[in-house]
Amino acid sequence: MTKMNMVQALNSALMLEMESNKDVVVLGEDVGVDGGVFRVTEGLQSKYGKQRVIDTPLAESGIIGTSIGMAIYGLKPVAEVQFSGFIYPAFNQIVSHAARIRNRTRGKYASGIVVRTPCSGGVKALEHHSESTEAFFIHTPGLKVVMPASPYDAKGLLAAAIRDPDPVIFFEPLKLYRAYKEEVPEEAYTIPLGKAKVVQEGSDVTLIAWGSMVKTCQEALQLNAQNEKYSIELIDLRTLSPLDWPAVHKSVQKTGRCVIVQEAPKTLGLGAEIAARLAEEDLLSLKSPIVRVTGFDTMMPYFKLENYYIPSPERVLHGVKKAMQF
């Protein structure tokens, strides 16, 4: 075991998967010589060569289209899109082709690409650099969508995504890249896709989050612990599609209350789907209305207003209080 931040954990996963599987290739803008804009791919090209770690032109549609062709041929491409706000030119390739190849060919071919992309805000970046686009891809049949919240999970989930036969959109919350370090095994391991994690057990209310909002919720738990007012259960979804519905239902049936925290805009976000499913299936277990703590239905603002947009620990606790005091 060694202490790693999320960047180091992701790099370790890529190193080990490329070592164990010669079909794994990495491609994207500046992933080779520069090691990626956040240095996630640092050292890969010097170890595995330019044939397997490929610096591409600035053309997201070309990066993903090429990756789809590679995957159909039998390779395992891991494509990097530098920021999730840059993914739109490749949206057609992902939604119309990567997600559909298996169905289109009735299982003859698959497109098991992994699209890595930093997402979300909190670092005062420019326009298109802080977006939360997960709902677009969760809504698309044929794609798996993953968003880790810790270095340990990031390494295990990325390894599992690379080994998965289906296309995976792998969101990496850039605010968490170097936020903290934790013990991570140096050897390879996987965390199964589609399995949520109970970060903290509780009995009064279920708090559901993913990505950078998990850390925000943990900070809210620390504020709550100062007076130990509520017993809060925190669930980190980890995989957003397929989502671990049994874990969600089990927790809410136990606590009877639910607060969902997402950084993305409120309307038609993943939180809305979770709330709808809970209302459909767990209505008689609920003691209060479901509460959503989210970003707003606006573009991510420039840096002076960014902290007003992104849910804070205080806003999360206010949501918990609202659920508890109904």
Walkthrough of the structure:
By secondary structure, this protein is α/β, with parallel strands linked by helices. The protein has 2 domains: 2-184, Rossmann fold; 197-324, Rossmann fold (3-Layer(aba) Sandwich). It is 37% helix and 18% strand. It has 12 helices and 14 strands. The chain has helices at 6-20, 44-48, 60-73, 91-98, 101-104, 134-138, 151-163, 212-225, 245-255, 270-281, 303-309, 313-324; strands spanning 2-4, 24-28, 53-55, 76-80, 114-119, 144-146, 168-173, 182-184, 197-200, 205-209, 232-236, 239-241, 258-261, 291-293. The protein has a 7-stranded mixed sheet, sandwiched between helices. Strand 6, helix 7 (151-163) and strand 7 form a beta-alpha-beta unit. The longest helix has 15 residues, at 6-20.
Q: Under the CATH scheme, which architecture of the largest domain would be assigned?
A: 3-Layer(aba) Sandwich
CATH topology of the largest domain: Rossmann fold
Task: Based on Cα principal axes, name the global outline.
Answer: globular
**SS elements, strand count:** 14
Low-confidence sequence ranges: none
CATH superfamily of the largest domain: Thiamin diphosphate (ThDP)-binding fold, Pyr/PP domains
Give me the number of helical elements.
12
Helix % is 25-40%
- Global mean pLDDT: 96
As a percent range, the share of strand residues is 15-25%
Main beta sheet: 7 strands, mixed
Radius of gyration: 20 Å
Number of domains: 2
Structural classification: alpha/beta
Strand order of the largest sheet: 3-2-4-5-7-6-12
- CATH first level of the largest domain: which class? Alpha Beta
Q: CA-to-CA gap between the ends?
A: 45 Å
Order of helices and strands: EHEHEHEHHEHEHEEEEHEEHEHEHH
